[in-house]
Amino acid sequence: VSSTRWVGIGGFSHETNSFSPWRTQVDDFSPPDGAILRGRDEMGARLASDCPAAGFVAEIEHLGHEAVPVVDAYATPSGTIARDAYQLISEKLVDGLLAIEDASAFLVSLHGAAEAEGSDDPEGDIISRLRAARPDCAIGVVLDHHAGVSDALVEAADVIVGFKTEPHIDTADCGARAANVVSRLLSGAIERIDSCLIRVPILLPPENLRTTEGPLRTIMAVAQELEQEYADRVVDISVFPGFAYSDKPATSASVLAQTNGDPELAAQLATKVAETFWRHRREFYVSVESPRDAVTRALASTVTPVFLIDKADHPGAGGVGDCSLLLRLLHKLGATDTVVAPIHDPESVAQARAVGIGESGRFRIGGRLTGEPYDVIARVRLIADGTFEALGPVDHGARLTTGKTAVLELDGIEVVVCEARAGLQDPEMLRRLGIEPTRKRIIAGKALGTFRAAFESIIGEAIMVDAQGPAPHDVTTLPFRHVRRPVEPLDGVLEFDPATTSVIVRGRTPQR
Ligand SMILES: [Zn+2]
After folding, report:
1. For a tag site, which of 42, 184, 255, 442 has the least CB within 10 Å?
2. CA–CA separation, 57 vs 191, rounded Å?
3. Could you tell me the distance, in angstroms and rounded to a whole number, from the CA of residue 155 to the centre of ligand 1?
């Protein structure tokens, strides 16, 4: 009897900011910002890149099984997923996997922070549907580090592996790890996997979640030490800081420990990591200024360049990227040698093309969905296709684009308007437009953690700003409706006993 098994491979990944005015449609899951890829041929290019599905396929085939890639759908972070988009994608994924005759296992790459009309737990729903239809299959899941992990998901999956790095550089490795565990379940090398999920009741803004420094580095190190200490019985320990802006019951930080048939050990290890997390929780918050204070401070600064970092409207956290509030304040307060980049504004790009390079015209900059447009007369300095090669450490060598892009000048300020929803992520983005960042006094942009690595050697001073948008540092300003309460900081300072939020799930033995 051949031991070769058929393993269905699929994925659905969206980090939903429930407060974003950009409602997510099927078109958002299409190039250049996303894709719905079907079958091995279409998924081929993605499988060659660094993603969980690539790790699934490589490891499954390495172990002598047959990988059957079905659907992998992903899109840039944005608002709640429209009902028809979620139905279409989840059906293609679930039906596609269930259509594989003789499948012994499924490996599914999910985000964990998706939220859709009609489902406040898309990841749990998808895996529960697979489980209900195929109770005897082994199911392995990879989740993003920023996942909110639901009980339903832990109950339905056999093994869940979360990314261990931010920025995420271990996505394919996690896919391979999940594939390896599933293969061992099928061979009987692992009898069954018992899990303990502990919800850590806190919503964390994304500014200080890197695993290379700060509190998360400490917490991840504890998890890793425990994995090594109990290597013979531990399958995986994942730490999820979560994505605070996805307004669904499972949203919060959490810890998931999984063992080879030892529920008590799973609970003991998850508790240890969750307690460490709780002890360090205050270190996650950084100091953030109001827009007016931040601009005033930037104008008074004696070091250059000063970066005004607006995260509230960052597309990487689900913002539209069109807020022009900092531009308005900088202009009103007389800033010079200043650049504001980029602002998502296809209309101003079209207007710039109509006006022509070197000419002046009336513009309404940004603010279509976030805040208000800024009405000004500006001169068109440059129009470009917006492509550049990133040279920073995170995206090094990647060919990125801001879509059709224009540089407008108003008094001493250069404004970059573009078609894409983009953040300021690499100095090359500016240099390709003839803007030398080291010669500027102030650079205002929408940026997340990854920006720091790329601009490290240039930054004179960096000021965090809570401007307008759906991803503010102060999460208490958002109208949450669905997250499980009580949770810090929405409900003040809490006491935390891991036993009260822990869910222990005894695993099952798949058909062999
Ligand atoms: Zn993430």
Report:
1. 42
2. 23
3. 23
The DSSP code for 464 is E
Ligand 1 midpoint to CA 340 (Å): 26
203 alpha carbon – ligand 1 mean position (Å): 15
What residue spans of 63-170 are helical by DSSP H? 83-98, 122-133, 151-156
CB 374 within 8 A of CB 413: no
What is d(CA 368, CA 52) in angstroms, rounded to the nearest whole number?
36
Give the pair of three-digit tokens for residue 226: 């425990």
Residue in the structure block whose two tokens are 């379940």 = 185
User: Going along 241-394, which residue ranges are E strands?
Assistant: 253-260, 306-310, 338-344, 360-365, 374-384, 387-389
Q: How far apart are CA 470 and CA 479, in angstroms?
A: 10
Q: How far is the CA of 440 from the centre of ligand 1 (A)?
A: 31
Tens-place pLDDT, residues 457-473: 999 999 999 999 999 99
- How far does residue 147's CA lie from ligand 1's centre (Å)? 7
C-beta of residue 252 within 8 angstroms of C-beta of residue 487: yes
Q: Are 277 and 219 in contact (CB under 8 A)?
A: yes
CA of 34 to the centre of ligand 1 (A): 15
Q: Calculate how far, in angstroms, residue 439's C-alpha sits from the geometric centre of ligand 1.
A: 33
Helix and strand numbers (H, E) in the chain are 14, 20
Cα–Cα distance for residue pair 362/449, rounded to 1 Å: 35
| Percent with pLDDT over 70 in the chain | 100
Task: Give the three-state DSSP class for 77.
Answer: coil
Distance from residue 317's CA to the centre of ligand 1 (Å): 9
Ligand 1 centroid from CA 338, angstroms: 31
Q: 420 and 32 in contact (C-beta within 8 Å)?
A: yes
300 CB contacts (<8 Å, ≥6 apart)? none
Listed in sequence order, the residues at least 6 apart from 296 whose beta carbon sits closer than 8 Å to its beta carbon are 333
Q: CA dihedral defined by 405, 409, 414, 416, rounded to 10 degrees?
A: -20
The alpha carbon of 231 and the centre of ligand 1 are apart by a number of angstroms equal to 26
Pairing of strands 234-240, 387-389: unpaired
The type of residue at 172 is A
d(CA 182, CA 160): 10
Q: Give 271-306 pLDDT, tens digit per residue.
A: 999 999 999 999 999 889 999 999 999 999 999 999
Average pLDDT of span 464-486? 96
Cα 169 to averaged position of ligand 1 atoms, centre (Å): 10
Q: What is the pTM of this model?
A: 0.94
Give me the pLDDT at residue 1, please: 45
Distance, CA 144 to ligand 1 centroid (Å)?
5
- pLDDT greater than 90 at residue 30: no
